[in-house]
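User: quick one, fold this
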Amino acid sequence: MEKITTHRTSLHTADVIQPIVIEEKNNTRRVFLANLNDTKRHLGETVSGTIVHQRKKNNDEWEDIESINLATLKGGEGVKIRFKSKQLRQFFLGLEKLYKLSKNGLAPGDTEYAIGKIDEIIKVPRNRKKFISQLLEKKLGE
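Assistant:
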């Protein structure tokens, strides 16, 4: 089961903590850093963000590579980024999950969402979650 975490940045916006990884190699990757906005939910326009090229630092953390200001390009200059079909599929599937997640609006505060099949998810009342989690950790009945 996949987890998506959002961090509320205002009444109507949230940052998605986990990036959508479009392409990853040993030391570089391209990711989509997503933001959710529920002000245009009725139009289905809830996801925005930035594609970033990152490099792995010595401590195995990813850092953004210095960006190029596209507004400073002169006539005849440009930037070309090629994506293979597998990479675009990863991007599409990640965006699809975010659009589905945001179609009903944003929850307050920092929120963790579980993305999975309906038969993999158990919905429990909030006041019983801790008790049920403890029982599951003990693996009773196995």
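User: anything notable?
Assistant: The radius of gyration is 19 Å.
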